[in-house]
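Hi D.,

Good news: the full-assembly prediction came through. Inputs first.
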Amino acid sequence: MKKPKRNSVPGPSVSRLCHIYSLLEDAVDQGVTFLSSREIGEKLGISPHNVRKDINCLGEIGTSGSGYETSRLKAHIGEWLGFNLGRKACVAGLGNLGVSLLNSESFLAHQYTIVAGFDSSVNRLETITTGVPLFPAREIAAVVRRMGVELAVLTVPAREVRETAERLCEGGVRGIVNFSPAVLAAPKGVFVRNIDLVGEFRYLTALMELGKG
Amino acid sequence: MKKPKRNSVPGPSVSRLCHIYSLLEDAVDQGVTFLSSREIGEKLGISPHNVRKDINCLGEIGTSGSGYETSRLKAHIGEWLGFNLGRKACVAGLGNLGVSLLNSESFLAHQYTIVAGFDSSVNRLETITTGVPLFPAREIAAVVRRMGVELAVLTVPAREVRETAERLCEGGVRGIVNFSPAVLAAPKGVFVRNIDLVGEFRYLTALMELGKG
DNA sequence: TAGATTGTTAATCGATTAACAATC
DNA sequence: TAGATTGTTAATCGATTAACAATC
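Then the structure:
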């Protein structure tokens, strides 16, 4: 067995391993104890070779002849990718979208807890009903640091994107999901996922137009 | 000049061309009339070679020595990728997230119009304030067909994902952005983008843990 | 043991990067 | 013209696919 290195996992593999992890969660929940690379690949639309290769980036773990033990593989991937510890997240920008994410229940079920919400309007903070503690935007850095928040969802207006992101990073946030209508360039040492609905529509439109599929 | 074919555009290029298009929109708005492949590449974090290659998938268009004329290139990419015509979209599932998207202003500015909203609860429909016409979910296929809706955002609970998607496709929708907490496999001839916030958090967590960057 | 499936090496494929002649 | 930048071909790089011996 070759000893795997943390940074030897290719980007596309990281993405697929996240999906494999989700699949394993379901499998464990449903009492499925073993899955082969072929079965995993079929459900995810990738080749069995690729599944094995991805999994092997994290070291040897399967059993020849019977496949992968779901709970063990899940724990193994979770260990490598950091899914086993609970992580704290916050929502910055409490418009309709921000508030709906604040109260979203799907996070808690998956080891992520929304521990704070921020908005630049104190008036707005007072009108929101939620179990999550809320703070004015100027306190972002301090609160984030004090609470140990690692992840943030950004749902502020375009003009506030950069400043808000800077405060979040100042407080020690290391990953940002940006739903705002402005692209956020990743500050050094921070990971950013820009999700832009117009962009998604465009991508779909382009695929439709080019007749792919 | 080689005659380009529609299906000769590689997937990664389609994605980058969408980003180039957004950049050109901004440039045109700001009165920038020419951009070189180097300038475009720098703003987007891709190599100038790659920029030229992507653009050339759609045929020759630049000017040696002075780069690309922004308005012309924008129109050219828009033509190929189908961004020049306005397109109709709908929102299916009017919880907090759905309603916030229904009233989002960023679509209209970019040739997409939300022309309908759907929810399975008639009671809920009556409580929503919006300028967009609303309909009960059972009318999805008929309304979508009648109105010529091509794109949809799916924000229903997990258990309603599949049925809702089927109705949308029945009505002729060709692209779906799925925000629901259940993966939607793309039906034949329909393009799907699954956006899963927990998945985004996981991907960021994995990058953080693997120390990429 | 026989059947099945893994881990790993080799072959293929496709995309990115580099280079440069052609062009404005 | 001289400088700059494109379009396109060639070289490199990396990921996916295939194959198969090792293993349960």
